[in-house]
Amino acid sequence: MPMVKPSRFARWFGRTALRLTGWRVVGEFPDVPKLVMIVAPHSSNWDGFLGFAVKFAVGFEVRVMGKTQLFWWPLGPLLRKLGGIPLDRKSPRGVVEQAVALIRQAPRMWYVITPEGTRKRVEKWKVGFWKIAHGAEIPIFPVYFDYPSRTVGLGPLFHTSADMHADIAAIRTWYRPWRGKHRDTL
Question: Which one, out of 5, 85, 91, 95, has a CA that is 20 to 30 A from the CA of 102?
């Protein structure tokens, strides 16, 4: 697992934030150098706060993809420091190719993405997370935020096959029991 240099304040902040809000983390983090972590359901801006609280509490390093428009001053430098990667969705290379190239260049990287691509309810997930994992030949690590039970859950590693639609259907089925702040996952 990619770890960051220990910061007592960051660990304290993350653990305190989780404790004060009543959230807990269940499951085990895998010991692999590279993966695509998908987090769902993503239905609230609070999801980002929870994600960073877990990141600080545990002390692992993640890279979070965000649209270039989020990385303006003064937010941009802070987002980069926290692991944000600005990706240009209008680039001729495409987002998937940019992400795969970044992952291949790094000796270790946990790359976080929300499969819905938005906080709004969607019928279909974006397939970029699968294409990135498949293209970089790394596993997918599903993580959920279940608001009714205030649980951040860590799932099993999922390795892509040649059938993208079957893989995504299986992952969505795994997510079915958990609810976001404002809606169900599916």
Answer: 5
Strands (E), 32-158: 34-40, 63-67, 84-87, 109-113, 140-146, 151-154
* Residue 186 is assigned to a structural domain of this protein: no
CA distance 62 to 48: 13
Could you report the per-residue pLDDT of 77-105, keeping only the tens digit for each?
888 888 888 877 776 678 888 889 989 99
Inside any domain, residue 156: yes
Phi, psi of 60 (to 5 degrees): -100, 160
Residue 125 belongs to a domain: yes
Residue type, 85: I
Q: Which domain does 122 fall in, by range? A: 8-175
C-alpha span between 139 and 126 (Å, rounded):
17
The tally of CA atoms less than 13 A away on the side-chain side of residue 161 is 8
- Counting the structural domains of the chain, the total is 1
Global pTM value? 0.85
In terms of residues, how long is the chain? 186
